[in-house]
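Folding Task

Wanted — backbone structure
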Amino acid sequence: MSDRTLHLAAFAAAGPVSGNHGGWRYPGADLDLLSAGYYRKLGRKLEAARFDLLFIADILAIPTRLENSLDSQLRYGALGALRLEPLSVLSLIAGHTEHLGLAATISTTYFEPYDVARSLATLDHLSGGRAAWNIVTSFQHAEARNFGREDHISHDERYDRADEFLEVACKLWNSWEDGALVRDAAAPLFADPSKVRPIDHRGRWFQVEGPLNVSRPPQGRPVFVQAGASSRGKDFAARWTDVIFVTHASLESAQAFYREMKQRAAAQGRDPDGLKILPGIAPLTGETGEIARAKDALLTDLADAKAGLSTLAYHLDIDLSRFPQDTPLPEIEQPGIHGHYKEVAELTRKHGMSLAQIGKQYAIKTNRDFIGGYKEVADRIEQWFTQSACDGFMIQIPYLFGGLDDFANLVVPELQRRGLFRTDYEGTTLRDRLGLPRP
């Protein structure tokens, strides 16, 4: 095993889209998305392949950003056509796995710190220290209207609220000292009152007395995952985040981001190695390159350009139907998700793609460097990992369960043969496996 350990996380939605908008239409794809068995199978397969964690993405509305209509999302099974609530799904998976980390997407914009701290502490206890929180700041009008607001709050205010949200949540997890839960029936002493304290938080966004009514989690606090790529998002990540999930259109942009974020973490007084950067990729593989490219051709045919454009419109928070479809993506000053905008802007600059072409490309995943025979895919993973572009990858599975089986049965053993990836789990908690200290 090399000095550095490659980390692998799986990105999945409790719905139709993960790494490719045509994946749900692929022959043999499992569409039993509302069954417990589907998610049991997903968790067990990832654990058998020794993945660090499963990350379940979430949004709080069916996007209507393209043409102010639900049609493109629902018709094409795009990003937000169906999303089950992630904590419920992960709680189910926790009962059928022993080692796999469990990351739930929860918004700091529309939830409250006490409820989130309590739910994640519960998941961490019940899973034996495997909970993680993908922290998002919701930005869509459709989401705002589902929570009694006509408009969402501004970009910087969303991060102001998120900073205070994290402060409160951490205070709540720390409102019980380690060892406060005694459970001495003879004394009697169930919990030591001297080790449980209110937090008495009074801030701009939240007033929370505390303490939490769940004892301190096994990990101290859940692992924090975040995907912000704006300047403010990077500041937030450098301060709080354990794992950054971001997408890149090239090795060079990944290397630049990696350098920048490690420097930002150091500037915050953190150990840069305590910030794990996992770019999102959608590998498509097979025994040979020809097999992989045949699968890619079929998936490309099945992915409708309008589905990709609908999801891109959601990510950028702008109705892209109002622009000429045969011209390049226009410059956008305040995109919803900066990382996705940079990714497609880089493609536009490099290849002069029209908006319609970008929609198609977005539907099948913009970075095409991880399609090929299993050794080719392992080569590219090794290149990014050894050339300081990442600490591992967030694997966006093109279709379930065949796409996962191909990666787990072909690429993972190849990475293990090269000494890049674990052959068995180490430690007892997700923090142990990620090499992160317990706070």
